Structure prediction request, 409 residues.
Amino acid sequence: MPAFNTLDDLSADSRVLVRLDLNSPIEDGTPQDNRRFERHAETVRELAEAGHRVVLLAHQGRPGRDDFTSLGGHAEILADRVGRDVGFVADTYGDEALEAIDALDAGEILLLENTRMCDDELPEASPEEKAETEFVRTLAPLFDAYVNDAYSAAHRKHASLVGFPLVLPAYAGRVMETEYEANTAIATREFDGPVTMVVGGTKATDVIGVMDALDDRVDRFLLGGVAGELFLRAAGHPVGRDVGEMDLFDEQWERNRELIESVLDERGDAIRLASDLAYEGPDGERAEVPVDDIGEKETGYLDVGATTVADYEPAIRESDAVFVKGALGVFEDERFADGTVGVLDAIAETNCFSVVGGGDTSRAIEMYGLSEANFSHVSIAGGAYIRALTGEPLPAVETLEAAAERRRD
Prediction:
């Protein structure tokens, strides 16, 4: 069980400051609805229906980037998901924000402006330093409690994530609670049968670190994506290299070569590599080639092939637990979704404990009509999921645990 307090421990009739992660794709200046709104709506709705006065903090993008915008549109999407009005004020801790907070009645919800528009928010610093910022010192006295529901940002040391738990009674929201329990299961739970990890995506550096950290907890790794090609390269195949204007493989190979070769040497019997790969043929259709038939890499490989999927499925079906980090192909293009969807289908049909991690991979579930109910947990976290798998600390979780410890004392 987590060592932090949850909403079950929250006193009635509180004015609550709640940190969400509503960071979303922005198209033509408009935030796009996604799984994060749906998940966080559960926490917000529960608090509002219990009669708390609910004030929300969230971020969008970073200064200087195209997706760095106001949260006005986010309030509208969240209101639809919660089923209640969500007020918005284009201010975070100035007079306008303070007046709007003071005017809240029981059960009402208010979203404040993008936290990253505050100078105090972004620089990484210790919780003690963040607790002393004007941002935290101004807002905290207005609230009875702080709730962190932003598990996907829990690896950051930003003021809204680690400052408030030092000066307010602090609790985990429902997203924080469920994400933490599912994503730490690989380290904390005992499984009766084999534990399998599906490893893919484009950020090979992250997943290779996960493989190294979990070598004693995972019985087999099923590889695809960029990491899969890099391991094929280490095994002596002429793939895992950049061709044309591609810039995915060579830099990651140089950075991780020794670790890849070490993991392959020490855990080779646990690592399953693709036996065939898919690419775009001359006619624009999907084409496949056995890895052993590749003499030189001349094109980009965009998915694992049908034989590989057939090889991976039995390993999944006999597993007691399956963790997914990264897609096996470019599933956004239907021609190259077979690997990712084939593996997810096998997991969905298997009575195992399953966690699908990372926003990109979880999108495939929705895109291809799979049901979230067929998986134990579909994570909305990226960087925090990686950290949980590798056992690295999550500062925002640590501050919640410290807050709970202080209350027990």
